[in-house]
Amino acid sequence: MSVQTIPGLPEGYKPGLEGIIAGVSELSEVNPDQDALAYRGYQAHELAEKATYTEVAYLLLYGKLPTRKELSVFEERLSAERTLSKSVSEFFKQLPKNSNPMVALRLAISLLYMDDPNRDKNDEASNVDKAIHLIAKSPTLIAMHYRLSQNLPILPPNPKLSHAANFLHMVIGKEPDPQTARAFNSTMILYAEHGYNASTFAALVTASTLSDMYSAVASAIGTLKGPLHGGANEKSIEMLLKIGDVKNVIPWLKDTLARKEKVMGFGHRIYKKQDSRAPLVKKLAEEAAKRVGDEKIFRMSCLLEEEMMKEKKLFPNVDFHGAVFYYLSGLPVDIYTPIFAMSRMAGWAAHVIEQHKTNRLIRPQCLYTGAKGLQYIPIEDRQ
């Protein structure tokens, strides 16, 4: 029996808390009526086109866009925080080569807690400090784990490069061209914050117990790991690579739909007509395809998008086109979800700060639907 068919459920019950208001926030507005996303009043797609990720991180943490001087100080601090302690670096070197990148990141975030003398202080100033640690160090953590897993030399952070360009340099092994770095920066902004999504809500539940920022972010990472949340980008590109060629798209889709299997990267729990982030990321993927001189996978994605609209009236979400952009930018598939995590780090941290300002323990109720009135049977009498 499905949840929807259980008799006696109260009117208004929503499986998965769909549409339920669980709190208030000044950080972002996800508008399902207009299929729009704004960060503290600024349209996310405009920020992605015009701002840097560090500007947006500052906006989320401090509530306003920085002046040139404020941004310079903020970026200098982020740059100084990129380096990992010896204990964290040695821990990564001890991990199995095939360890899951998201699990490794979650463990490493917990280790950062050990290095922070103010780890259990939840006042705003201490939490902002923790947020800066996490935003600065998470790209280094992801890049180090990837390089170690491939038996490649570890590249230290480059203080001369931007937040986005430095990450690409540490992963790929060379300084990215300005167009790729700028485009990657834009995708990071679009992933930076998205209301009470599953991973953010997980972080809030942890933070509401007055646990620390690192524990809250570790909870978020564990939630983001799931294929129905952050893992959708990896599954999307794996799907396209499996299809293999433009000529295979329509037969593959018809067969997949006939078997009632999910097509990854399409539809959204909140947006009903369009994911407002997707058009810009699609444009970035198209530009990347032209830059590298290989448009096959982009053409495949466009055809699949067209056919999914015809067949199911479903639009692609940001993960679908984001996966294509990452692939064309030369990024390894198994770090797509960690990239999502390091981009969302600013949003997670800002939510934890907000939660701790006016905290109330998040403790919802569930409706019991099991058996009632049973009597204990001694073990020797049980059948």
Supply the key terms.
Cytochrome p450-Terp, domain 2; 3-stranded antiparallel sheet; mainly alpha; Citrate Synthase, domain 1; 383 residues; 2 domains; 3 strands; single chain
Short description:
With about 375 residues, the protein is an all-alpha fold. About 55% of the residues lie in helices and about 5% in strands.
Q: How does this model look, in words?
A:
By secondary structure, the protein is mostly helical. It has two domains: 41-224 and 334-357, Citrate Synthase, domain 1 (Orthogonal Bundle), CATH 1.10.580.10; 232-328, Cytochrome p450-Terp, domain 2, CATH 1.10.230.10. Helices cover 56% and strands 3% of the residues. The chain is built from 16 helices and three strands. The chain has a three-stranded antiparallel beta sheet with strand order 1-2-3. The relative contact order is 0.14.
